[in-house]
Design a protein that fits this description.
single chain; alpha+beta; ten-stranded antiparallel beta sheet; 13 helices
């Protein structure tokens, strides 16, 4: 091996928001860091690493002279942009498309402005990395990855990380973090430590932080080092990461291979409990992501069908940049000071309004190409045929409609589709003649893949035919109902706990709220007592839940059950509680309303849980108990699924030296599934990622009430965060899917996407149905992808042309031939990388369909012309 070389890499870690606000971070990083670094680079052999383009974009707009200097120094290779994302996003929580866009936006900017091709991915501070990150990085043109958090095996610090699909990227883990060479008086000690972990004599020593500016003496210190007598005759150079990796490759080492996600706290913290800090951010981010992706798909279809464009290109770019800001690694986890989230709330409010209008506007435009006069249209944003619950608001002139029997398709095709679809009237208002003025209906349509059906209302003069329901309210009479696939659902009127059975086998008993002690901060859950009280009575002796107003509304298609309850911190008597009934309740801190929706013909059960928590220092989780004994479970992750161990909480009691004790808490993208060989339970969430599986039970963390950023002063300053106490009303939406077989047989991943990107319906007004060339029947499908394990990720216009980008992935871990059927004739198709660079032309095209073989967990991007 060659003599040791130490690559000292001056850099700064940029937090756009955290313990300062955005303007403070601009000021610190520009005035005290980058301006000083530029001066050093102009006068010495100093070099510098810049991570993110969000800051560079601001400098270009506000500090043109400084930006010109940065551009010049980048061309001279004195500045390297490593990472090069728009912002260093959280890598565990966002949708995979957000992660790709974060890279695409950043790399494109660096290429255009600084003329650099970013080859080194730089993960200085993200809270762990999902198992598909190697594939994403390689697909975006990176060759190397430097990171700090998530590794569970310290030696060697250089290795190949293999993603779910087999992609491998060369990695360097930072044993001493990104401040290894920050203290220039202790470089000997840092070198000795780093050498213990290194796979070769090439030593990467990051020298920087976000807490201070560049050190002018760096060049002199390095010169003095090289003039001195050091162990192993180690030489030191001021360098950038690419220099380190090029030298490392020359060593021709047979590197170890590591697999799976990087989400272990053994060597450095990943803060799993931040997945439940400020839950409103997680919920609204999920909604924003799905609305943006749905808008993008609809806008693309409208453009290809010649409809008027609703969402301008610059508007679309604006909203993408907004979600990229929200996904930043201190923003989405919610680990910053209160004031920095005011801007994020404004972003969400604006997006909710604009993107909702975009979706409805695009659907309205598509109805103009439909023959006949439909009354309403239902659009499916997913690439497979979906049968799901749907709701639609309608408005009528006086005398037009007095009763609704059901819906019928707006065309005839001689198939089963001609049958009448039952509807439920959910809400209504009347004209003076008692005809409907406004009405909200619910129904269960089956809608084509990435397309729509149009329907006509079947009217009737007798309103009672469409509004029949059975209501009973009692705290003594429970509820029992048969649903699809042979399951039976029973609801306890005392607490709203649901039990699902089939053939005398219990699949789960759950929807039980647990109030637990919370003594932690934005990063960590901590407790002494643990469980304060569960709805089944476990916990300390003082508190109690009280339930009243158990109400069942039974209609044609589903039963809607509501239960209102409260949590009191004190009941009296509070001893011999199994014998003595409570007489007094005091100190009401939590108000709860449970809604349970049970469909006659669907096996999925929906839960809407409203919580107003005023209990200080509390964690509220919902529990589902199962008879399953498996020691592992599966979870949705970006572009695939990941297997994890259960009961990891108990391993934190082992006497192991760890930076962060295991808790069993993990984030999930849309679904988790706990199964054995014969049966299982999938929990589908809408923006509730934080979960744990322990003692045969699945827990979802609904919220944590914390009042300080860091309670121990280690992860950050002890800054009060009263907004994170979560003293506000919350609504949580999640679903449970009992099933036979495992998650693959149940297609749990599809159900997770269906509740997050649901069917959308709107009323068609007669003025909208204008003349249009090439009118179609009342059905349309732009794209259908099969088989079931191939899932769509994106449909949008290409970055640089009028071509269409379709991205999809395999999610069950098996080699598959994917079949794509379009609603238009394909002119050409090429496979591209994630940056849309052409890899190869696709030959297996037949008119409007194509086939392509997909490796397990592989992401495929196609660029098409029609």
């Amino acid at each position: 091996m060659a003599n040791p070389v130490i690559y000292l890499v001056p850099h700064t870690h940029y937090d756009a928001i955290w313990v300062f606000n955005k303007e403070d971070y601009y000021y610190i990083n520009i005035e005290f860091i980058l301006k000083q670094a530029v001066q050093l680079m102009k006068t010495t052999d100093y070099k510098f690493l810049i991570e993110q383009t969000f800051l560079l974009e601001h400098i270009e707009n506000k500090y043109p002279e400084l930006f010109a200097d940065i551009t010049t120094l980048a061309r001279k290779n004195k500045i390297e942009v490593a990472g090069g994302q728009y912002l260093l996003s959280d890598v565990m929580l966002p949708n995979g498309e957000v992660l790709i866009k974060e890279i695409v936006e950043g790399k494109k900017y660096v290429k255009e402005k600084l003329h650099q091709d970013v080859r080194v991915a730089w993960g200085a501070d993200e809270f762990g990395f999902n198992a598909q990150w190697p594939q994403i990085l390689l697909g975006c043109g990176y060759k190397y990855f430097v990171f700090r958090r998530g590794l569970d095996k310290p030696k060697p610090s250089e290795f190949l990380w293999e993603g779910l699909d087999g992609s491998r990227i060369m990695c360097h883990w930072m044993p001493l973090g990104y401040r290894a060479g920050l203290d220039l008086t202790k470089l000997d000690k840092s070198y000795s430590e780093l050498k213990k972990f290194a796979a070769s004599n090439q030593i990467l020593m990051p020298s920087g932080s976000g807490v201070m500016g560049p050190q002018p003496e760096t060049s002199d210190v390095v010169k003095k080092w090289n003039e001195g007598d050091h162990q192993d005759s180690a030489r030191m150079v001021i360098a950038t990461p690419i220099e380190f990796f090029k030298s490392l490759e020359k060593e021709k080492i047979d590197f170890q291979v590591r697999r799976g996600e990087m989400y272990s706290g053994r060597l450095s913290e990943v803060f799993p409990d931040s997945t439940s800090s400020r839950m409103w951010i997680k919920q609204r981010t999920k909604k924003f992501e799905n609305s943006l992706l749905t808008s993008e798909r609809l806008d693309t279809i409208c453009k290809l069908e010649g409809c008027a464009s609703i969402l301008a290109t610059d508007q679309l770019k604006k909203y993408w940049k907004k979600i990229l800001f929200v996904a930043m690694h201190d923003a989405l986890p919610g680990t910053g000071i209160d004031e920095v989230y005011d801007e994020i709330k404004d972003i969400f409010d604006d997006a909710d309004n604009t993107l909702s209008k975009t979706i409805l506007g695009c659907i309205s435009e598509l109805t103009k190409r439909v023959e006949g006069e439909p009354d309403l249209i239902v659009f499916n944003p997913l690439s497979w045929e979906v049968r799901n619950w749907c709701e639609c608001d309608l408005e009528f002139d006086e005398g037009a409609v007095k009763g609704i029997v059901g819906l019928k398709l707006n065309y005839e095709d001689g198939t089963e589709n001609e049958k009448i679809i039952d509807v439920e009237v959910l809400q209504h208002s009347l004209h003076p003649d008692e005809s409907f003025k406004t009405i909200k209906i619910g129904f269960i349509p089956t809608v084509p893949a990435l397309g729509f059906f149009t329907y006509n209302i079947i009217k009737d003069g007798n309103r009672s035919m469409s509004d029949s329901s059975t209501i009973h309210s009692s705290n003594e009479i429970g509820f029992k109902q048969k649903i699809a696939d042979g399951f039976e659902v029973q609801v306890d009127p005392d607490n709203g706990i649901v039990t699902v059975t089939k053939n005398d086998l219990t699949y789960f008993t759950g929807n039980e709220l647990n109030v637990e002690e919370e003594l932690g901060d934005l990063y960590y859950h901590r407790e002494n007592l643990g469980l304060l009280k569960s709805e089944t009575g476990k916990g300390v002796k003082y508190g109690a839940f009280t339930a009243d107003n158990f109400r069942v509304l039974k209609r044609k298609l589903r039963s809607h059950i509501t239960l209102e309850s409260n949590y009191y911190a004190l009941r009296w008597p509070y001893r011999l509680t199994d014998k003595l009934k409570p007489i007094l309740f005091r100190h009401k801190y939590i108000e709860i309303k449970k809604e349970i929706i049970i469909y006659n013909d669907l096996s999925r059960i929906d839960f809407i849980t409203h919580i107003h928590d005023r209990h200080p220092h509390s964690r509220i989780r919902v529990r589902f108990e199962t008879p399953i004994t498996s020691k592992s479970y599966w979870s949705g992750t970006q572009f695939g699924a990941i297997r994890r161990k259960t009961n990891q909480f108990y391993s934190n009691k082992k006497k192991m030296k760890m930076s962060e004790k295991p808790t069993g808490i993990f984030p999930a993208l849309e679904w988790v599934d706990y199964s054995d060989n014969d049966s299982g339970v999938s929990i589908l969430n809408q923006g509730i990622p934080s979960h744990e599986i322990r003692d045969h039970s699945i827990y979802l963390t609904l919220l944590r009430s914390v009042v300080v950023l860091s309670s121990d002063g280690i992860m950050g300053p002890c800054i009060p965060t009263p907004d994170a106490a979560e003293v506000k009303p919350y609504t949580f939406r999640y679903s449970v899917l009992p099933h036979d077989g495992d998650w693959r047989e149940a297609a749990s991943y599809r159900y997770g996407m269906e509740i997050n990107m649901p069917l959308v319906s709107i009323q068609v007004t007669k003025t909208e149905n204008t003349e249009y060339k090439n009118k179609c029947l009342g059905k349309f499908s732009f794209l259908e992808i099969s088989p079931k394990n191939i899932l769509i990720s994106a449909l949008r216009m290409s970055e640089d042309s009028e071509s269409v980008i379709v991205r999809f992935f395999e999610t069950e871990g098996k080699r598959t031939v994917a079949i794509l059927k379009f609603g238009k004739i394909i002119k050409s198709a090429v496979v591209t990388d994630l940056l849309e660079n052409e890899i190869r032309k696709l030959e297996q095209i037949k008119n409007n369909a194509l086939q392509i073989e997909v490796e397990p967990y592989r992401i495929i991007t196609l660029k098409l012309e029609f």
